[in-house]
Amino acid sequence: MKLVLFDCDGTLVDSVGLIHEVMARTFVHFGYDRPDVSLTKSIIGLTLDIAIARMQGKPHVDDEAVAMTGHYKSIYAQTRAEAGFQEPVFDGIRAMIETLAKREELLMGAVTGKSRRGLDLIMDTHGFRQHFIVSRTADDCPSKPHPAMVTECCSQTGIVPADTIVIGDATYDMQMAKAAGAKAIGVAWGYASVDDLWKAGADAIVNHPSEIPGHIPG
């Protein structure tokens, strides 16, 4: 048996537009300028409070970052409901998941810096819940690149990290996978550069979701 764990934002769904808009509104609410989208992209994948602190150049989460995290969460659903801020799946993702779901030796799951509520919205919106039997979110584990999201999914499914593949678009995903003892596959359509993914420990890079099944041995 193999366990395939997918990151969500930047890997399964293109969520940068929504995340950046909510982040920008949060910064403005607290008296800051709107951040550049490149800065927002650089923190996608981290747990929200750590992400906000890092965007501000802070070495750790302080009271303001906690308050900003609360505000972000309070306006997220309202912003997501506005036209143009949905989170579409990347081209080829749905067909890839359906292909993997047919393989009896594979189990699939999600490891994400999103909240549990945020992940549930994605799973339900795109009909993925039936295929993902295990998941860990920012509500369950320390932020990536800590290996807990992977190791806890392994423990729940009874599959060892050596038989686990983590697929993601962020350097944090690659680092998390290697820290857990799992294989790391980077995706080129997300928010980090291919060069940075290699440097972070990727074992392989795919340019399109259709390439993923070929990297998962039977």
From TrEMBL:
Gene Ontology biological process terms, A to Z: DNA repair
SUPFAM superfamilies: HAD-like (SSF56784)
Keywords: Hydrolase
Membrane-spanning residues: none
InterPro entries recorded: HAD-like_hydrolase_sf, HAD-like_sf, HAD-SF_hydro_IA, HAD_2, HAD_sf, PGP-like_dom2
Pfam family, one: HAD_2
Gene Ontology CC entries for this record: cytosol
GO terms assigned for molecular function: phosphoglycolate phosphatase activity
PANTHER family, A to Z: HYDROLASE-RELATED, PHOSPHOGLYCOLATE PHOSPHATASE
The protein's name in its UniProt record: HAD family hydrolase
Organism: Agrobacterium bohemicum
